[in-house]
Amino acid sequence: MKKIILIILVLIISISFAGCTYGSQFTIGSIENNTLSSMSMKYAKFSGNKNKNITVNEGDTCVVSVDIKTEEGKIDLLIKDDNENIAYEGHNIPTSNFTVKLSEAGKYKISIEAKSHKGSYTIKWGK
Question: What value does the mean pLDDT take over residues 70-99?
Fold first, then answer.
């Protein structure tokens, strides 16, 4: 029985590191899905941060779609470019759905920071 639990934990940890997000977090009951054009997680409790770097090419506009569900706790979102220019900054975001347009070419960092947050987030980006 202990061997099965150990295998399941190793699989869960391996899946958690899939994708290109990074950060430091503590989660309880979480399911995470990260792709080349999205990051999402649903959880009973999330404290910490998750980050994703994206690139907007010259002449392109990138639309970042955000869907946050807040049942309790606090969640913040920050989108900024390499020059520290802020494209979006939101603190203690309630349940909401919105978009942010990135029209300047360059590299951007999407950062989620949560404190005892219960709920979920889905962030998608593309043309």
Answer: 97
* Spatial distance between the Cα atoms of 109 and 123, rounded to a whole number of angstroms: 12
In this prediction, residue 15 carries a pLDDT of 47
* Tokens at 70, concatenated: 């807040």
Q: For residue 26, what pLDDT is reported?
A: 86
Place of tokens 């959880």: 43
**CB-based contact 62:106 (threshold 8 Å):** no
Global confidence as pTM: 0.80
Instruction: Mark out the alpha helices in the chain (DSSP H runs).
Output: 2-16
Cα 30 from Cα 36, distance rounded (Å): 20
- Please say whether the dihedral angle defined by the alpha carbons of residues 71, 87, 37 and 99, taken in this order, is positive or negative: positive
Q: How many helices (H) and strands (E) does the chain have?
A: 1, 7
